[in-house]
Amino acid sequence: MKLVFVFLLLAHTTKLASALWCYQCVSSHPGCGLEGFDWRFYWSSSCHDPNDVCVKVIEQAGSDVVVTRDCLSSLEGHRRDIPNDRYEGCRPATKDVQLGTYIFPSVPEIDNTRTYYDNVTFCFCSFDERCNGASAATTSWAVLLLACVAVVRGWVA
To answer: pTM for the full model?
Structure first.
C-alpha cells in the first residue's frame, strides 16, 4: 500500500515541461525596445506549438525602429514576409510580390503592400536564455520530500 501511495504521489507531482518559453512584447510598450529590453516587465510565456521558435522582428524606417518579440506560431497567421529558413540567427524578410497587387485603396496611409519599412529583419532563437525548449520531467521536490517523510514515519498505512 505504501508503494502504491508513493507511486501515485510521484505520478501526480511530475509534469512534462515541453513548452518553449518566449518573451511577448512590442517596442511601443515601455522596456521592450531594441537596446533597452527589461525582462522584469515582460515575463516569458509558453508557446503552444511543439515545433515553435522565438522570434524578434526588427522593422526600420529611417530612424524609426519597431521591435516585436513573440512566438513564431503567433506571427504566422498575419505576417506573409516570414523567411523560410527558421533556424537560429537573423535573416531579412522575404518579399511578397503578390501582396496588395489587385487592390486600389482610397486611403494612402494604409500600408497594404508593406513597403513602409526599409529594413525588416527576423531573428529566430530556440536554444538561448528564455528560448529554452525543455522536454524533461520536473518534480516538485517539496512534495516528494513530504511523501518520503510520511512513508518513513509510518503516517501512511
So the answer is: 0.66
Residues 94-150: tens digit of each pLDDT: 987 777 777 777 887 777 777 788 899 999 998 764 653 333 334 445 555 666 676
As a whole number, mean pLDDT of residues 16-39 equals: 81
**C-alpha pair distances (Å), 30 with each of 40, 57, 67, 96:** 11, 17, 12, 32
Question: Going by C-beta distance under 8 Å and a sequence separation of 6 or more, which residues neighbour residue 24?
Answer: 42, 44, 45, 69, 70, 71, 74
Q: What is the 3-state secondary structure (H, E, C) of the chain?
A: CHHHHHHHHHHHHEEEECCEEECCEECCCCCECCCCECCCCCCCEECCCCCCCEEEEEEEECCEEEEEEEEHHHHCCCCCCCCCCCCCEEEECCCCCCCCCCCCCCCCCCCCCCCCCCEEEEEEECCCCCCCECCEEEECHHHHHHHHHHHHHCCCC
Measured CA to CA, the distance from residue 22 to residue 54 in angstroms comes to: 6
pLDDT for 137: 38
